[in-house]
Amino acid sequence: MADGGLVKNLPVDVARQMGAQRIIAVNIGTPLTPRKDLRSLLSVSQQMINILTEQNVTAQKALLGPQDVLISPDLVGFSFLDFAKVADLIRIGEAATRPLEAGLAALAVPPEQYAQWRASRAELKRVPTATEFVEVSPLQVVPPQAVLNAAGFKPGQSLTAADIQAAVGRVQEMGDFERVSISAQRQGQAHGVRIDAKEKFWGPHYLRVGLDASIDFTGESSISLRLGHLRTWLNDAGAQWRNRLDLGRVNGLSTELFQPLSLNSPGFVSAGLGVQSYQKPLYANGKPLLTGRVRELRASLEVGAELSQQSDLRLGASRKTFRATGDLNYLSSAQTLVTEDVRIEFAENDIYLRYTDDSLDNAFLPSSGQRLILQGGQNQSDDTPADTKVELRWTGAFTLGHHTLWPALRLARARSSVGQGTGAFALGGFLEMSGLPTESLSGSRLGFVRLAYLNRISTGDVLGRRLLLGGSVELGNVWDSRPDLGYTRDLLKAGSIFVTAESPLGPLFLGVGRTAGRGTTVYLFLGQP
What ranges make up the beta strands (E) of 219-336? Predict the structure, then answer.
């Protein structure tokens, strides 16, 4: 499909074909930009659009006759992006119409007839007609019953304009349609409505591409390409097939089948398989000891229920198998360098219950909402005793004007049936003890709190993207047992300052982080930080 402005910005012939004998046409095409003002790619692109538009406007104006009225406001200096200048444009339009007032008056109906028409319209609004039937236009993928359920109309209901507008919004929120409209219909003496929904031409297969690039200027850098595929409406219950391919720092392929128990049922079943290969540093006291190559196989099964549009509860089980290889370098008792080939294979079994409530408006740069994750379960590696694990994660965003507070809290503990759990949780990285390498701290107990601040220093370009300046204060640590002086006296202190901007590939972060007594790191991220 092409934009209507490019094809017919002044569709005189369309109005004639619809039966119009007299036409009131308003030409709102913007004049061509002077050559001296063509200084950017955006201005040149706009000029190309204006040229194409002007060509079809000239042809359409030639179809107007003496009985028609043409209004041509003087729009020199304005563009189609000047939404903030609406008041000025209204005044210019009125000034262009005043000289044509006599010709327009000849087309007006008598005041009494117009008042009678307005009264009849008002009467229709006051006395809605009861809806006796609701029909849906033919669809290729989405079940019509799903559209009816989303609209929420009931037989016998008297629909107001507000009811119809709300129904259009609910159907649009399904995410399957380019546009939705609802019109009144009659079948004999029965009154009803018809829901016309045009399915997205690129569905039901949806592809997403993402790029994660990072460098901390201390030797750790990576780039990853993410390809996502989603197939919706595998059946009338709304089953989905989700796939993801990662290339770069992590090479992996995963697939998941999500099956609701029935259409609009809150209950669901999910099954997934995945394989990953990646470099994994092994740290001791926050310092790298060795780096190995890890191959991970995963299988999972979940059953759960959607408690609301933003929350769900899941009971799941998973099994992961790991194979790691690497070279361990150390000094022998004779003070000679020894290199030892290390090979490790083990498996982990998890059973967990997880509650998620997520209303953040943006996963990476939120300005409102909260996310709460509560999870508890058991983890067992091969023949070792099982660890009981509990974890709380919370983050929120609160904005006033250009200022946003972005706090976060994380608490976790693992305990084995024969004593303390070991190495169950990891901490470290940008905004999670900034200045430390990613996941360089591990232990069976974890505490972390952060308060970040974002200041929007730019209102964005024509795409509405934001430029923000931020900083964070962070406290946290991990332990395998209770510290002698208590947890609060054994917290590491960290912080960061950064600038971030939204881009088509995700947020761009440039910043510096420091953990007191441990180190300073410069970060550059494109994509997920």
Answer: 221-231, 240-248, 250-260, 267-284, 287-308, 311-331
